[in-house]
Amino acid sequence: MSIDQPSLRAPVESHWPTSAYLHIPFCRRRCFYCDFPISVIGDRKRGETSIAMAQYVDILCQEIAVTPPGPHPLQTIFFGGGTPSLLSVPQLAQILQVLERKFGFAPQPEISMEMDPGTFSLVQMQQFKALGINRVSVGVQSFVDELLQACGRSHRVAESYDAIAILHQAGITNFGLDLISGLPNQTLDQWQASLEAAIALEPTHLSTYDLVVEPTTVFGKNYQPGESPLPTDDIAAQMYRLGGASLGAAGYEHYEISNYAHPGLTCRHNQVYWQNGPYYGFGMGATSYVHRQRWSRPRTRKDYAAWVETLVANQGQITCDISSRQDILLETLMMGLRLASGVSLTTLFEIGGAQTVDQICHCLAPFQEAKWIEIDGSSQAQGAIRLTDPEGFLFSNTVLAALWQTLDP
User: Fold this and answer.
1) In CATH terms, are 12-274 and 325-407 the same topology?
2) Which tens digits make up the pLDDT trace of 341-373?
3) CATH architecture of 12-274
4) Which residue in 213, 38, 224 sits closest to 116, CA to CA?
């Protein structure tokens, strides 16, 4: 493939974020697969009764207040965790008010919140909606009680159904469910049952995550990947294919390696990450990507509080390295190939030029022959590189490893 040399670059203004992620780290307990930066507060405390949560919200708002705003209002906001539904209504209002004062909100912004079954009431959901929450992601994980127990989850299947009933009663029509495959002792029949139960609830969005066994987790200390009682790689692959077939037959579009949605109802916020776009991150362990600079906050509340104190003293100024052209190229490929639409040749051309695009296409030729990769187009003005569904997605790590070896030897 031969392409002209690049000339124009995207204006600096386009590197200002219009998306913000807010990390709410509090959980009732730590699930056995979780290595996220969280703080366990037990089953009895929540935003209304936890001093730690109140202090954290104040510190989070201090960070937001000293962050330099860009020229554009926020179009997407995502409350993740942790368990953001443990926030009290006044705490959520406090965070949103500071955000809007600092950055402004675009008309009809997507404001998402992760919620766990059993952690919110109808009244609370109604009040959250009144504050602007218009998209909810429910961490169901499984519709099999023994698997929930084996994961260390704090809820059971009955509470999942109660949570969805609350969303319907509150008038939340845009909601998603999260499911996990590849759990210890999980069978194909159990995975099929969870898929069918989730589809029957008619969410607008479904995320199906294959279990990743991190070394620092309970699962990581008890199990070795690929060994019993974890499913074999072959069974895990069958679960992935089964998920795609079942959800596709039910009318869901497979728009990202782990995500499905009804047409027009993809998660706008998460697509910013996958397209390697800029975003603000706020809170313990959160990452920001602004003006090609990426930085993360400390992963403990004590260290995060000290970090914010320094940030306030420096009037919001942060010194960090600017991502190199090579970093941007690799990140764009790593994130963009997660999308069914893939990575456009135009984007790769603008980052690396004709020689780099030719190098990428040459590296991917064997995977194209194996039907793991599709490459459309022959110029910087059109075309894309994408993983095929499902086989390309299943072997994405192999494809990415080859790209890394070629582009960053």
Assistant:
1) no
2) 999 999 999 999 999 999 999 999 999 999 999
3) Alpha-Beta Barrel (3.20)
4) 38
Q: How far is CA 254 from the centre of its chain?
A: 15
Label residues 286-301 b or e (16+ Cβ within 10 Å = b).
bebbbeeebeebebeb
Rounded-to-integer distance, Cα 192 and Cα 198, Å = 10
Residues 6+ apart with CB under 8 A from 187: none
Distances (CA, A) of 239 to 96, 148, 210, 230, 235: 39, 18, 9, 13, 6
Residue 178 pairs in a beta bridge with 207
Judge contact between 84 and 114, C-beta under 8 A. Answer: yes
For residue 11, is pLDDT > 70?
Answer: no
Q: Which pLDDT band holds residue 321 (cuts at 50, 70, 90)?
A: confident
Closest to 117 in 3D by CA, of 68, 77, 160: 160
Q: Which CATH number applies to 325-407: 1.20.1280, 1.10.3470, 1.10.10, 1.10.260?
A: 1.10.10
DSSP 199-243: HHT--SEEEEEEP---TTSHHHHH--TTSTTSPPHHHHHHHHHHH
| pTM exceeding 0.90 | yes
For the chain, the domains span 12-274, 325-407
